[in-house]
Design brief:
Layout (H helix, E strand, L loop, with lengths): L1 H8 L3 H5 L6 E3 L4 E3 L3 H10 L8 H18 L8 H6 L14
Antiparallel strand pairs: 1-2
Helix pairs in contact: 3-4
Length: 100
Amino acid sequence: MAATKQSSRSLSTRNRDHMPTGTFAFPKERKEPLNDARHVRNAIVRFDQVEGVSDAERDAAWGRIRIAARKYGVEVSARDWRSRMKAGKSGPKSTSKKRS
């Protein structure tokens, strides 16, 4: 019974591979699926962790996230991803290493 409950909450690789490309915030990379409220919230939290995408791709992804958020009843307070990152709620990870 526990295995069924777990599998209903997580997205298997097989299911993810069969999802339409438009279901992802970043469809070209197939990153951040937007198939339910939990995944939309996760896409918002992990937005700044997606690497190798242009600002234009981020703009489009944020638009897809906002549409999915409305669909699934997820509140998004930031109007765009830039303001969210500037507000300190999220930000690019530093590429420099701390020295001990």
